[in-house]
Amino acid sequence: MSAREPERSASTSLTQGEYRELLEPYIEALNAARGSLEQSPDAGVSIRRIARAVERKVANRGLHAVAQAAGRVGRAETPDVGAELRTLLELLEAVVAGRLRPGSAVLLVEDDPATVALLSLTLERAGRSVVSADSLEAVLAALHDRVVEVVLLDLGLPDLDGREILSALKAHPATAPIPVLVLTASNEPWVRAECLALGAAGFLSKPIDPRLVVAALNAGASLEAAAGGELAEDRVPGSLEALVGESDPLTAKLISQRLIREGFAVRLFSSGSALLREAERLTPAVVVMDSLLPGVEGLELVSRLRALPSYRQLPIILLSSVGSEREVVRALEAGADDCLRKPFSPAELMARIDRLLRRRER
Fold it and tell me: Distance (Å, rounded) from C-alpha 131 to C-alpha 106?
């Protein structure tokens, strides 16, 4: 690394348990009022009052992102309260779960001013503190001065390959635990394989969709790789089950988090062969899978699923990094109901799933 070693001792006044004890009553009260928001205008007044109390409570405890989000809820007009409240609740739950630490920041390692401006504006709007850097020295300085929650790392820096920074971060005990999300325009499998081998937690494809970045951070910075076939740890019981085939840990996390939030039970598979092996004994409501799964690739997997009696009419959505007209036609000819190009918004994915499920019910 460098003679200037990063310091990882955050100045926090409360333990994790104390933060949980402090914030859980507010989370419970906000969720209760949120459930009545559509039926009762008074619920909006209650939400704003609770949010202002949260802002005062956390103002001097290093929870800058939470304080900013609470302030926006406290000042929001009634029609906008719900959207702002969702961000506040996600941040509060991240603190309680230990995913967001007091005083922590997102370190954006990127040399393109337009990308820095776009991501900084979006992340700060979502209540995140952002520090930018465009060199290894600047990265080390940022890590020395701040507690960093996650690193967003561009591979194409002007004077240094981003993989060198990734290697340096993961080689040092003080910075090795920090999740690193790689920003890249490359779809080459060997580039992604190398980054994963060096310790990357996941990928975000360029051109960057800021909504995906916010969703990734709100989903949690741990970003564990999806294990084949077990129920997601944070499963919410639901009457519908979804099979998700995705080998990229970040994308798998984004999809499963959104489906779970919508009431689906989710089974994650990191290979096509694992998904196919389990498919015969499962009867899901929908299948969402990448077109380049290892084992059995997407188009063949669609055809083999369609050969199973219970999957002949079942909605199947294929995710593709290519998204060309030819790729879409091939997907539809293989039996997919829809083809969604990466990067995509989780909200867009849910809209397509809902459309297919409604069509099936007719």
Answer: 6
Q: Any idea where the domains of the chain sit in the sequence? A: 16-96, 104-219, 240-361
8 Å CB contact between 152 and 109: yes
CATH number assigned to the domain covering 104-219: 3.40.50.2300
> What is the pTM assigned to this prediction?
0.44
What's the topology of domain 240-361? Rossmann fold (3.40.50)
231 contacts 190 by C-beta, under 8 angstroms: no
Alpha-carbon 130 to chain mean position: 17
Q: What CA–CA distance (Å, rounded) separates 110 from 138? A: 11
pLDDT in tens for each of the 362 residues of the chain? 444 444 433 334 577 678 888 899 999 999 988 888 777 878 888 999 999 999 888 866 767 678 878 888 888 876 678 878 888 888 888 788 776 666 668 899 998 898 899 998 888 877 778 899 988 888 888 877 667 878 999 988 877 888 999 988 888 766 777 788 888 887 777 777 788 778 887 778 788 888 778 777 765 433 333 223 333 433 334 458 899 998 887 778 778 877 887 788 888 898 888 899 888 888 899 999 988 888 887 888 999 999 999 998 899 999 887 666 777 888 888 899 998 887 777 777 888 888 888 877 66
What totals of helices (H) and strands (E) does the chain contain, helices first?
14, 10
Q: How far apart are alpha carbons 82 and 232 in whole angstroms?
A: 27
∠ Cα 41 47 51 (to 5°): 155
Give the three-state DSSP class for 54: helix
